[in-house]
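hi! just following up on the protien thing from before. the input was this:
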Amino acid sequence: MRPRINRAFFLVLGVFFLFLASSLSVSAESLDTLEATLRQFQAAIENLDFSAYGLFFLPEIGQAEVGVFDSYFTDLGMDGVVVRRLPGIKERAGEHTVFFHVVFQNSYAALVETWRLSFVLKDGDWKIASREVVSRLRNLYRLKIPSDRWERVEKITIDHQDISLTFNQALVFYDNLPEIETALLIIGPGRMAFRPSDENEKHQLKLMYKTESLSSEVDHAYLRFSPSFFSRHVHLDGARPAPPISPRDLEQATAYFGRYQENFFTVENSLTRELLTVLPQGEEAVIEFRSPKLGDLTYIFSPFAEDEISLYDRTRDRFICLYSPRETDEGRPLRFFFGQPFDILHYDVEAEVDPGTFFLSAKVRVKLVSRSGGLETLRFRLNPRLNLIRILDEEGRELMFNQDRSNRMVYVPLIEPSSRETITLEFFYQGRLEPPPSHTDVLLAGQAEEPRIVVPLKFESLLYSYSALWYPSPPHEDYFTARVKLVAPAEMTCLGQGLLLEKGYSVGRKGEKSGLRQDKAYWIYESKTPLKYLAFLVGKLEFLQESRTTSGLNLELFSSQEFRLNWRGSLEEAAAILSFYEKQFGRFPYESLRIILRFWETKGGHSPGSLVILNQLPRSLASQGVGLANPASPVDLSRWPEYFLAHEIAHQWWGQAVTWRRYRDQWLSEGLAQFSTILFLKEKYGRKAYTDILRQFARWTEKKSRWGPVIMGSRLSYLDFEAFQTIIYNKSSLALNLLCELLGEDVFFKGLKEFVTVFRFRPASTRDFFQTMEKVSGTDLQAFRQSWFEKHTLPRVRLQTSTEIRAGQPFFTVKIEQLEDVFVFPLWLEWKEGTSVRREKVVVQEKNQEFSFSLKAKPRQFKADPEKILPAVFN
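and the predicted 3d structure came back as:
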């Protein structure tokens, strides 16, 4: 049966579509009118046309809005406006929403606001139904020195914690902020005195300058501080108005301010492209000064940092001291520790790189979650050499940002505080970026002195890793998953982290000048396992081999195309190393492992998550001895060919799966990786190889330990790079061996597995490590930790032996006296009884101890620490 056609229904439907088409046409015309209205409204703001400004609002709110607009100038003293409209119009319930960034400013201050404007059609015209300030950046200042305030003072003194500066007959320049003291420039003869209240820091000063305190002449100082700091810590005597300033003094003050202005509390605003500063809070202060003897120094005090006091040598780019002050009779100074406000969940990266020009362009989508409720501002680290073009939020709105180039930081205020569980931002940037040497989770071999390159060589690979800051990374240690698309010239190869999902090619256009066509290739990698940071290697690389371990892990081997040394057996060796580590520390942390034999000028390696990069010397350099590990280096174990590979694979656990929280905990990466390496060498070559290595470590530790404790971390490298390698890599390995003997192997390795499990994909501290070991072992390890990780000294021990008869039974007695600091350590004692060798282990933990052993024969040839693997002095 044919269905009956309802003619009335189709008639109504046709009328509906005709009405809809008419509405869409009107809407398009209205939107064009709205665009024109928005341009006129922006012009009214910029021209400070108050009467025109009010006409854009609905009549019932226009007068009030003009009053609010006027208050920015009458009440806040602003005299200019910079406006940027955000692209896009959002329609909802008959209202059209538009966002504006508005910067109010005068000669010394700025106020940045984001406005949400709701437009409605009223009698054929677009009117603003509401204006809401959804975010506001207050207390921004346009700091300037010299201003119109300066004076000559007989004496000015700055006293704070462990530093004081005194100037006599000095010229003092004040900042340009009315009724606020936050910056001061002092030019004239002065003197600085600095005495740290921390014993380890006194020791560092003694190593650097042969004194536990610093005192030096200075010729100027620039100070940034809070107004309350000025009233408490800056003292002026005999101030008098200075005569008209000379052009020379004015030029000198301008030059000093230009040198120091950007270093602290200053950002470049993306709207105005000018420098704006914020006021330090509470006791925050920075003092920059120059000493003819010591160079350019910076004293920093921040109650918001774990190490509140730092003295930085800007001339030599190193920290002299970094610590928190000791407690006073009034108690410990108030400290502020803030948790990280957000956690990055995932990166989506599209990056194109040209190794020939070092040009990098990228689009990066970051997904993060708030840890502290509504987020208002986000911070990211990014290399200042990259031109940050724009940042978009999840709705495609362009965000304003403030860039601190000196500290390589970008601050991103959100358009409105976000209450969402997750937030997504998209970064667009480009620029010429030559990657610096990597310095995270990396083995640096000590290089032989005076290398000479006879034959010019071209190294055709670039490693973009953490130190390059090539993507917007979090300012704190964080873990995240990632999907990365890498694009490069077709003759290159890009090796990234995780699994390779896709690889392809695209035909390029002919160059306008060269007429040559440059084809491109792309690679898409995905890591579903959390990474600590993103890295990739691009260059002329070739695939060599692929295999699987017994646990099912996929292994791939690549090398530079120029590489011509024997690579066979590398994957088999890697599989053996992985199998050993998985037994000791638990399963491999990542989905796959990609090993690259990189043609490079020095030995060593780098180990980002799921990548191991081993530097391999070309034959021409190796034959000359150029770039080879120095045989006298404290970390040279190159006579065992597996050393570099085993060390870098160990970093996949120590440094990647578990990372160190701050520089004082760096041994958790390098020390545990080094110790894991020698455990593997012991497994393969036997106990003798192990003791040979520990003996080498002990000799170096005795030689270099005076440079500082293990918890001094990377700062040790400022004074003596061999000392850094010795203490962080080798002394910590010796300490771990002692801990293993103290607790027993079963308990020790159970503790390591527990540590990896608890802190997998989390930063950990030295305290965390020992608390885990204490929990597993039931042993108080505080004294052991202090002995081997927090002191730069080593045990000095006197031993006395005697034999006696007790109830007819002969006994051998060993008296042990610690002559200086008291350490905790297991000690092996050895002697001969008749024809047999007897070994006994004792635990030394007090100033004076006595141990007795029953005898079967007269003891002879007594030895303490017979294998010479304990770094100590025995009398």
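Confidence is low (pLDDT under 50) at residues 1-26, 328-338, 447-456, 620-629.
The two ends are 115 Å apart (CA to CA).
cheers
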